[in-house]
Amino acid sequence: MEKEVVVPIVLLIVSFMLRLAIAVQGIHGTDVIAHVDGSRSLLLTGSPYCIASYNYPPLYSVLQLASILVFGWNPLGYKFMPILFDSLLSIVIYFAVKMFTGSRRLAIASQILWIFNPLAFVASAWYGLFDSIPALFTLISILVLTISRNIASASMLAQGIVSKVYPLLYLLPQALNPSNRKLKDIVTYIAVAVAISVAVEVVLSIKCFRKALECQLSFHLQRIDRGLSLAPYTPYSSIASLSISTAILTIIAYLMRIRGRYNAENYFAWASTCTALTIALNPFIYPHYLIWLLPLVLIYIICRFEEKGIAIALLYILIFSAIGIAYWKFYRISSIVTILSISLYTALASLILTTTLSNISRKQKL
Fold first, then answer.
1. Global pTM?
2. Which end of the chain, C or N, has fewer beta carbons within 10 A?
């Protein structure tokens, strides 16, 4: 057992060191500045919202402030948590693939794919974007649920929700997991996740509650910048993008449950599909949103297609990375953004078809 974990741990260290070498090269983009303002507000006032325009749920400000207090007000302090969680994603992906396939070789390949994922590199290490944090909490919540650790799963999902809102997509579907045998278990799962999320939100927002609501709700529900999105825009349409996908995934989870087909592979397939749909329907899309999707896709495709899955997963990683990095480079040139947007939707449609049809066509595991 000890020998088995040596390689993934070494790869984890390599992943972190490579990202660290990029992270310390400076501040890039404006998002990280807004994040730091939130952490400074938290330090001075007890809330990230009082003297900053911090437009996210509050947990990341706590994590970032912790690293700043250790490493200082510098690029390392600002980016340490994104690169740490991005690196930890690689080893969680390793254990997920190893758990579902029993193949150490496939697990190592999946970890290497994530370590050298260009989009993840640029998002966490260059720009200091923290989407790897809710992605990691969400992935852990799914994995511990497969071994009937329901309270732990709900707790991890709650941490994802108070990092970014999108993990709400998985709350009801995961509550319907067969390990929650009775209605009481389903209600408990939901209650634990909601209670932790609300508690963290209230504790870190209460001092400037009105400002916190304005920052988190008004900005994200009514923002007019589109990024790569081709979805029709109406005020509050971002709610619809999450609600539609949540409804679809919840119905699928319920049907899988009553038919005895709710298992890890099926869930990863449908979670990948509905996450891709959430992104596609969003009225504003930025490249780092794809970090929500790629760990789920990587695990499902490699578990489903094994050796061929490595090539398929690599192809999607390269396509999404090329689109994302090109957008960051040329976002001011509308003609290029249009081409990239069409390419993104084509890739998302292809991915949705791949995960959906491959899951439907195979013999369902009971």
1. 0.94
2. N
